[in-house]
Amino acid sequence: MSEQYQKMWTELGLDLKAHDALLGVLSEAYQKIFMAQDNRPQAMSYFDFVMSEVHGLRIKELLDEKAAGRKIIGSYCVFVPEEIALAANATLIGLCTGADFATEEVEKYLPRNTCALIKSAFGFKLGRVCPYLETTDMVVGENTCDGKKKAYESFKEIINNLYVMDLPQVKSANGKALLKAEYVRFKEAVEQLTGVKVTVESLKAAIKLVNAKRAAMLRLYQLRAADPAPISGLDALLANQVFFYDNPERFTASVNKICDELEQRIKENTGAFPAKLPRILVSGCPQAMPNWKLPAIIETSGAVIVGEESCVGERGVRNLVDGSGDSVDEMLDAIVERYFQVDCAIFTPNCDRLQHIEQMAKAYHADGVIHYGLQFCTPYLMESMPVQKALEQKNIPCLRIETDYSMEDMGQLKTRVEAFIEQLK
Amino acid sequence: MSSFAGVDIGSRSIELVLVDAAGQILQQMQADTGFDPMAEAKRMLAEVEYQQIMATGYGRNLFEISFDATTVTEIKAHACGARACFPTAETVLDIGGQDSKAIALFPNGKVKKFEMNDRCAAGTGKFLEIMAKALGFSLSEFSEQALAATSDINISSMCTVFAESEVTSLIGRGQSRQAIARGLHQSVVRRVKTMLNRVSTEGDIVFTGGVANNACMVQFLAETLQRQILVPPQPQFIGAYGAALLAAGL
Ligand code: SF4
Ligand code: SF4
């Protein structure tokens, strides 16, 4: 896609050489990991196309939206409500943080023992390789874990459009009031950015649009309960990663098209893998684009992933917003109600998450759970121990993995994963 | 007579074991991994005949491609080999050149749970090897001297690099090499203990891998854990032995 977009990338201020290198690595990885799979659903071709145009066509669309007067907002967390952005004539893009970049530069701002996700956010900015980030009119940073909270203080030095959103840490009435206040403040900030007021109609329409997108993903997840699994975990994860930056209507239609095909497959008893393969639920930190390391290891070691308990997964899309309210405030309450249920490990206590893991393991007939924690991620690594203990008490084997985005530990990881799969057989 | 091979391609050495259909060991060989493990493995295999082969160890996947073999992880291979030596054992500790593993088994021998050391070499054979060298001992002297020590110096660094400089400065300050050796063994035992306790807290432990030849490690582990440590003859071959048994369908 290179030539035709050179001008666009230059105007966005990208470092063309570094950007070329990144795209090269990305497309090679995509070929090796995704295109090499057998029995992919045909409708995945949409995602192949999206990926081949990831820094091309979609960026052009966003720039066209901007030219027509819309604003683009970037976010790093599923707590930033897309409904509000859409209702005020802005497009919300989840910025991916799934690869190491410009590590040396990054470590001038962040200690070495910062999680890879936070480092990646800095790396893409410092390395000037992310066209999405450069397209944004506002970037929302949220006070979730300590790492992110403090990192945003330094992020301000290298980015000029950061808006910081506070978030509760406890699921109490006070916590909910804080979330409401922050969403109201966010609504006002977006309105100011776009010059467009959120109305009952626009918010209702936005809720409907995002609900449809989430419902399509939930439909996809449920189909994965079948044996043989109709779609690989890698492909399902990919759809979930694209969820964060694609055009919402088109995305919803494409996922529903895949689901139609998967339903057909289930009827015909065919799948992406043979039946009776060990089935794995992956649970833990979000696997942001293009972090495909762990799922690629699992699915080339003789198992299939049947669910992701993660923000790039069911935790991120579970629960829809009740859009039946008659006023903006009523609907804002409904939005708060929905987001307040997200069971991120930054909450204390966070009992819902354990329940959801058990529920998902059961619903998708998982034989075991792999808990995925990013190195230095205190919230998820801390939770991994009680999660493992509780699962083992229910005779659900659980493997705790702690890793980052580097390829150094591939051999070790492969041994762990393979041994875990042997254990499930 | 039919024979089945197991090959364990580790980071430091390669072991090859041949068994017959009843699981009796027919032959075993060991060589340094060197810089070209596949060439080394090829050389070893040229000397033997077998019907089936199963590869394990960190080089198993490379081997699988080069030799069209089936593979099994070190965890399952050690579990299988250990059980063949001690049929009722439910805990296995394997310390090899660059990694260590604690494995808990169900009463029927299936793997129940396992833990592995992370990327660093602390608590592995490599750590002990480097420390022996820093003290100017051979591997067997290192263990003997540590056992003979009457006092004990606490080594605070877990990291191989820092521990090595700590050792050098202790020697410089005139501390007894015996006591330092003892402290080093104890630091590995502490590390291993945490890992073991995560998978099981009671019953006998089968100790496999090259480090199980170290008498001091065996004694300190038994003392610290208050559990019986069972060491099979030639523990460095247990991974390959287990793989051979699996190749034979045993
Ligand atoms: S894991 Fe927590 S901080 Fe990360 S995206 Fe999810 S909700 Fe946000
Ligand atoms: S919650 Fe964990 S993975 Fe997410 S940003 Fe914080 S430390 Fe990183």
TrEMBL record, chain A:
It comes from the Bacteria. PANTHER family: 2-HYDROXYGLUTARYL-COA DEHYDRATASE, D-COMPONENT-RELATED, DEHYDRATASE SUBUNIT MJ0007-RELATED. Belongs to the FldB/FldC dehydratase alpha/beta subunit family. This is 2-hydroxyacyl-CoA dehydratase. It comes from Shewanella yunxiaonensis.
Automatic annotation (TrEMBL), chain B:
Residues 6-247 form the ATPase BadF/BadG/BcrA/BcrD type domain. PANTHER family: ACTIVATOR OF (R)-2-HYDROXYGLUTARYL-COA DEHYDRATASE, BIFUNCTIONAL PROTEIN [INCLUDES 2-HYDROXYACYL-COA DEHYDRATASE (N-TER) AND ITS ACTIVATOR DOMAIN (C_TERM)-RELATED. Its cofactor is [4Fe-4S] cluster. The keyword Iron-sulfur applies. InterPro entries: ATPase_BadF, ATPase_NBD, CoA_E_activase_dom, Dehydratase_Activator_Redct. Transmembrane segments: none annotated. It comes from Shewanella yunxiaonensis. Gene3D superfamilies: 3.30.420.40. It holds the Pfam family BcrAD_BadFG. The keyword Metal-binding applies. NCBIfam families: CoA_E_activ. This is ATPase BadF/BadG/BcrA/BcrD type domain-containing protein.
